[in-house]
Amino acid sequence: MSVIHGDKLGEALAAASTMSKTVIIAIVNKAYVEGDKPMLDLFLDGFWIGEGTRDLVDHLLIVAMDQTSYERCRFLRLNCYKLETDGVDFVGEKVYMSDDFIKMMWRRTLFLGDVLKRGYNFIFTDTDVLWLRNPFPFLSPNQTTDLQISTDKFKGNEWAESNPINTGFYMIRSNNRTVSLFDTWYAKKDNSTGLKEQDVLNKLMHQGFFRKLGLRVRFLDTVHFSGFCQDSRNVTAVATVHANCCRRIAAKLADLTRVVHDWRRYKNSSSVDGRTTASFRWTNHTACKNSWRE
Q1: Quick one: which of 110, 102, 60 has its CA closest to 84?
Q2: Looking at the Swiss-Prot or TrEMBL record, what is one Pfam family this protein matches (predicted)?
Q3: Residue-wise over 116-143: b if at least 16 C-beta within 10 A, else e?
Q4: How far is CA 186 from the centre of its chain?
Q5: Cβ count near 164 (within 10 Å)
Q6: pTM, whole model, 2 decimals?
Q7: Domain residue spans of the chain
Q8: What is the per-residue pLDDT across 158-182, written as a single tens digit (0 to 9) for each?
Q9: Are 158 and 57 in contact (CB under 8 A)?
Q10: CA 60 to CA 24: how far, in whole Å?
Q11: CB 145: neighbour CB atoms within 10 A?
């Protein structure tokens, strides 16, 4: 399919896409690119120190919600796209569950629905997710699996809707079912005051909407796709670590930096043998636990 002249999103997606029309998408604003060690830089560090992750940056599309983050993305020579949003300021930190945070999450949902309509599959990843291993081997290549989504706590059955979903990391295939999902999901925005988009998707799931659409949804095990809500039990198998169950960027940065140190300690062990692996423990996510007291 030829790119329409002047279609900047089409050009950006084509530049980042794999041969199978799959793109890795992360969304940032000014709060994620400024400071002594910005979240975007830490996110990229994960690809540098991870196993089999460096080449994946070629397929990463950074979606910037303001001019500063767009300029930073361009400076880093990444695949970049500036998402224009008239009349809304998405520049500063949007504290979890604030009105601006909820607005930003809905704008994200609308944008990602557009990507699906253009025929692209994608992995969406928050920038507070460290990629320590290439996640693709832990994701099903089966094209009948429409959505593979991370969980705050894995309940043991990867097909059970009792798993609490987290929209900070998921892989979705572009087809009529997933486009319908995003259209219905976004249409609930104005009747969902005080709810973030993840809450609304969770509600749709429990109302049987996934089954109604015929969606095949796989819920990802935290052994491979972990987070601060539930650490991976196996450092030899973990692919991603998400700073979920955390309220502020500063706390996420502090505790994700500790994850990087833990990972380096594991990787630098003189011999990564059974004893080293068995004794490995993640450092407590103290800053994130304390962020809820503020």
Answers
A1: 110
A2: Nucleotid_trans
A3: beeebbbbbbbbbbbbbbbbbebbeeee
A4: 18
A5: 15
A6: 0.91
A7: 8-219
A8: 999 999 999 999 999 999 999 999 9
A9: no
A10: 5
A11: 17
